[in-house]
Each structure stands twice: as structure tokens, then as C-alpha cells.
Amino acid sequence: MAVLDVLNDQVAQELLASRELARLAYTWRDGTPRVVPIWFHWTGTEVVVASPSKAPKVKMLSSRPEVAVTIDGSSWPYHTLLLRGTATVEQSDGVVPEYAAAAERYFGPEQGSAWIAQLEEMGLAWTRISITPTHATVLDFETRFPSALAG
């Protein structure tokens, strides 16, 4: 099944529109894995996250762009979207628009706008990190299970 077919699945779409945190996994300079919880925005073709430019992950993703992203539901039956792909790192003028959209999704319009205004006042440099999925798997623990449990 093609990656976009998996991402158009009902469970995948539920998770991509949810307020669940994504978990971004990448490789640190010493070769060990790192995982960070992070807000995300789905554009229809990319998972976009953002970070202040001085965050350690920004430098690492520039040199080691291979990543994995997991978005999981928090109630049974657990729904999970597992992604692998390549991150593209770009400096942004101000807060990344997709981050602002994520803030409104997570906080609601009023509090999300207030959060973005507060960040803009800080004058931080921001980085847009877009992840193009090259692999996607949906687990719903009803009909789709981890491969170790599948028959």
C-alpha cells in the first residue's frame, strides 16, 4: 500500500487531526537515539514541526535528517500512526505558520493566538522542520496489530 493511501486511512486522519503529541525520533551526534514530544501540523503531504533555531535538535536534523514520528491515541483500543521519513530544516522569519496553526489546534483559537503573540514578543529565531513520510503504518488494535501479534 502506498504511503499516501495509508495516511488517508480513517485512523491515520483521526490522529493527524488530533491534539495528541507527536514523538519525533532522531539520531544524536554519538549515534544514540533521541525522542522528543512535540506539537505537529499535517499539511496533507508533510508533518511540520517547529523549534527555536538554537534547539539542539535543529543542528542534528540538518546533518542527520532521517527521522521517525509516532502519534498515538491515549485510550483503548489504542490507535497509532508510525511514520519514517526525511526532515528538511529551513530557517523561518518569525514563528512558523504551521506552528501557529498547531497552537490553535492544541489550545483553541484564543489561547493559541495569545501563545503565538507571546512567542513573537520574545524575538526568537525559528526553524521549520518538514517531514516527508516515506513509510507509514497504522495500528488500531482491532484489525491491525504490531507484526509480532499478526497471524
Describe the structure.
The structure is a single chain. By secondary structure, the chain is of the alpha+beta class. It has a single domain, classed as Pnp Oxidase, Chain A, CATH 2.30.110. It is built from five helices and seven strands. A seven-stranded antiparallel β-sheet has the order 2-1-5-6-7-4-3. A hairpin with a 7-residue loop joins strand 5 and strand 6. Helix 4 crosses helix 5. The two termini are 19 Å apart. 28% of the residues are buried. The model has no long low-confidence stretch (mean pLDDT 93).
User: Over the alpha carbons, how many angstroms does the gyration radius reach?
Assistant: 16 Å
Please identify the structural class as seen in this structure.
Answer: alpha+beta
- Which shape, going by the Cα principal axes? globular
Helix-residue proportion = 25-40%
Spell out the CATH superfamily. Electron Transport, Fmn-binding Protein, Chain A
Multimerization state: single chain
Residues in β-strands, percent = 35-45%
CATH architectural arrangement: Roll
Low-confidence stretches: none
Total helix count?
Answer: 5
- Reported by name, the CATH topology is Pnp Oxidase, Chain A
Q: How confident overall, as mean pLDDT?
A: 93
How many domains, as an integer? 1
Termini separation: 19 Å
* Largest sheet: number of strands, sense, barrel closure: 7 strands, antiparallel
The arrangement of helices and strands along the chain is HHEEEEHEEHHE
Largest beta sheet: what is the strand line-up? 2-1-5-6-7-4-3
